[in-house]
Write a structure and sequence with these properties.
With 301 residues, the protein is an alpha/beta fold. The chain folds into two domains: 145 residues, Alpha-Beta Complex (Quinone Oxidoreductase, Chain A, domain 1), CATH 3.90.180.10; 122 residues, NAD(P)-binding Rossmann-like Domain (Rossmann fold), CATH 3.40.50. Helices cover 29% and strands 26% of the residues. Strands 3, 5, 6, 7, 8, 15 and 16 form a seven-stranded mixed β-sheet that branches. Helix 3 packs across helix 4. The protein is globular and about 60 Å long.
């Protein structure tokens, strides 16, 4: 099978498409003939040597495609079903991927739209669960217009929360369309938020990691009411919970729950741009630049 890989750390030019042996699912897993695979910041961070140091490395944690092989004990999907989910081995950007966590693709979505979902939906749901966001909560989200941020906005609104979203002014109309109240980054943030919520907010979620944990703590009345997914150092410094995506803490239930919200029109995650697998280097360049609304997706097969 063709798969994306790099054998040295560096820029996008180190990426290559190589022929690797076909993979097979273990107990409880499925194999998917991949049609689309999501791109995340972790991909280019791995490529630059900022994460795992082993070489060579394959890439990709989220994929959408068609089931073509079942592992022992799998009864909830069948050969030929459309599925999306997580490849925990980090090898989803390939013609075949073994998925450990998966769900049926919502009927209204194509493969690219489904491949955009797993990481953003799971991360957002996990953080909201850890914060205890529910009906009547007021939630401040730093970095509300990106893929994880906008997922968190919509999921929180669906839970009945009031959401104030921090984003650049160019994204304020987008946040309003998601039923969030937008405020701008920068000096005077606390005052701008208090214009919407004079007594502050119940809870705060940091998606952007832009160094404003002290402000979030002030507005949410304590570090115990704040979760960050992006500022590990700040979390340690200020006593804020850092949300990890390890096996024990994953909100896997989000994969099976998101379909109902999508089909009812209460959730959408835009695909900003697609690339064929052969153009993975260009996809990395766009991802690393970071100025897009929505998800980048590789098209495979």
């Amino acid at each position: 099978m063709n798969a994306a890989r790099f054998s040295q750390f560096g820029g996008p030019e180190v990426l290559e498409i190589v022929d690797l042996p076909d993979l097979h699912p273990g107990p409880g897993q499925i194999r998917s003939a991949v049609r689309a695979a999501g791109i995340n910041a972790s991909d280019w961070k791995k490529r630059k040597g900022q994460m795992d140091r082993d070489l060579p490395q394959t890439l990709g944690y989220e994929a959408a495609g068609i089931v073509d092989e079942l592992g022992e004990g799998v009864t909830d999907v069948g050969i030929g079903d459309r599925v999306f989910g997580f490849c925990i081995d980090g090898a989803a950007q390939a013609e075949l991927a073994v998925l450990t966590y998966y769900a049926p693709i919502p009927p209204s979505l194509n493969f690219a739209g489904a491949a955009a979902l797993p990481a953003a939906v799971e991360t957002a749901t996990r953080a909201l669960d850890q914060l205890g966001v529910g009906s009547g909560s007021s939630l401040l989200i730093n970095g509300a217009s990106g893929s994880v941020g906008s997922a968190a906005v919509q999921l929180a609104v669906a839970r009945g929360a009031r959401v104030i979203g921090i984003a650049s002014p160019s994204n304020h109309d987008y946040l309003r369309s998601l039923s969030a109240e937008p405020v701008a980054y920068g000096e005077g943030l606390v005052e701008r938020v208090r214009a919407f919520a004079p007594d502050g907010v119940d809870l705060a979620l940091d998606v952007a990691g832009s160094g404003i944990l002290p402000e979030l703590i002030e507005l949410a009345s304590g570090p115990e009411h704040v979760v960050t997914i992006a500022d590990f150092g700040g979390a340690q410094q200020y006593g804020v919970r850092f949300s990890r995506g390890d096996d024990a803490g994953r909100a896997i239930h989000a994969l099976t729950e998101i379909g109902e919200l999508i089909e009812s029109g209460r959730f959408a995650l835009p695909v900003a741009q697609t690339f064929p697998l052969a153009q993975i280097a260009e996809a990395h360049r766009v991802s690393e630049n970071g100025h897009m609304r929505g998800k980048l997706v590789l098209l495979v097969g």
